Amino acid sequence: MDMKNNAPKRKKPPVSAEQRVFLGKLARRDRLVAAMRLAILLGFLLLWEIAARTGLVNDFIFSSPSRVFAATVRLYKSGELFYHIGVTMLETVLGFTLGTLLGTLAAAAMWWSPTLCRVLDPYMVVLNAVPKIALGPILIVWVGSGIKAIVVMALLVSTVVTVMTVLTGFNEISGEKQLLMRTLGATKRQIFIKVVLPASVPTLIGALKLSVGMSWVGVIVGEYLVSRAGLGYLIVYGGQVFKLDLVMASIAVLSILAAVMYYLVAFLEKRVLGDR
Which of 70, 161, 197, 223 is deepest in the core (most CB within 10 A)? Predict the structure, then answer.
């Protein structure tokens, strides 16, 4: 007999009138925030278009929403838009995934060994402070031009941030819980798996959010230096030939893709931490 299927289902407690009023206020506030965000965006685009059409700004230099849209349509019709998006997305996903995995593993190793943490800590600070674009020529020589150099650039940018963020979260876990586990005879591996790692889930999600942005930064910087395809390449090419509509269109597409990727991580956060 399957006891799980026969077990009585737990009923949700009834929602009081006060709770319904409170939840209604929260829903209205969320709708107001969404409406204000949309209004700010639409207002900015409208003012930009009016300024360009009335000559308040030079539409050749500053472009305009209509010209940006037309440039995007031209890229789409020529078949270049999704090709360049695909190149940049591939590089970003690779850099984001590898940077997150390596950064989390490095943070776990530094938490495991306080001596290793003390040895590597100043190097983490220096690597985080060094402008990664300065390493571009070295990476080109070491790994060659192309996607390898771009992914390594994204990896460098996202890994260091992930290490520092996750390690800080690991070290903030209550020492009392770890002491209790040690008193009960738990090994360090059991303490890490059963106490530190579960308690650090919000920190890991936060590190993912940071890593998303830093991966985009690393990829675009890499494409500035060595790429012959991708949104970063289009931005550089458009600036060189004074096709600023192309530059603004590439930036607009880049912004949308970065926002989508960020909100995917935010959706993951809501699913994972929603019941906490």
Answer: 223
Alpha-carbon radius of gyration of the chain: 24
Q: Is 172 left (phi over 0), alpha (psi -120 to 50) or beta?
A: alpha
Query: What is the reported pLDDT for 2?
Result: 47
Query: Do 45 and 85 belong to one domain?
Result: no
At residue 69, φ and ψ (nearest 5 deg) are -65, -45
Task: Give residue-wise pLDDT tens across range 5-63.
Answer: 554 555 555 656 666 666 677 778 888 888 898 899 899 989 988 888 888 878 777 88
For residue 46, the enclosing domain spans 15-57
Give CA–CA dist 216/96, Å, rounded. 8
In this prediction the pTM is 0.74
Place of tokens 């009585």: 8
In this prediction, residue 129 carries a pLDDT of 78
Token pair belonging to 68: 């940006």
Q: d(Cα 250, Cα 80) in Å, to the nearest integer?
A: 11
Q: Tokens standing for 32?
A: 């107001």
Nearest to 250 by CA among 43, 87, 94: 87
In the prediction, which pLDDT does 3 show? 46
User: Same structural domain for residues 121 and 47?
Assistant: no
Collapsing DSSP to helix, strand or coil, 184 comes out as coil
Place of tokens 């890593």: 211
| Number of structural domains found in the chain | 2
Q: How buried is residue 154: exposed, middle or buried, by Cβ count under 10 Å (0-12/13-18/19+)?
A: buried
Q: Which residues contact 229 (CB under 8 A, 6 or more apart)?
A: 83, 84, 87
Rounded CA separation 87/94 (Å): 11
